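Batch manifest, entry 17 of 40.
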Amino acid sequence: MKKHQVHNLIILDESGSMNSIKKTILNGFNELINSVKSIEKEFPEQEHYISIISFNSKNENNVIHFNEPVSKIETIDDKNYNPESSTPLFDAMGFSILKLKNFLSDKNNYSVLVTILTDGEENASKEYSLTSIKRIIEELKSENWTFTYIGTDHDIDKTTMDLNINNKIRFDKNGRGIKNMFEIETNSRIKYSLAIREGKLISDDDYYK
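Output type: structure tokens
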């Protein structure tokens, strides 16, 4: 039987303000990857793929992983994640989402879960605007793509409303806050895979409920 593919796209802020929580974020993401590996074992009818793309205004889009089977993903460390510079959020979203969309253009029987994690607002994009990103999100929501936003230190409600992303959580920028955030994210991913198994749709605002 052909397995259902689940594409996990993580768009990770690598701007300078993330430096103070760099180690904790890396540890959290490594634990999250291990959790996705466990989810794949719990739901053997699913194949999970990981794409992690970090961004800042100096290095633009840093493709750490792209469409790799989660079973082959190793830990992320400071060799491929070094926060600095500004926050071109819209450019990172446009690049990452369209890269995966184009890759999947001739495929079927898949779901996409997009996770955006940032501690600041857009302030450096040159290619994509709020309007263009919102249009892309609205289009893909009808094609089995789920968008989530994890943020701190900015007006998350306004940002997500502007982007038309309703699945959102905020976290406290400290060790305990980040740990709690990743626990919520892991539990939500289990629920997401269960919904796929049961043939249910994750609605536009209940991923974190």
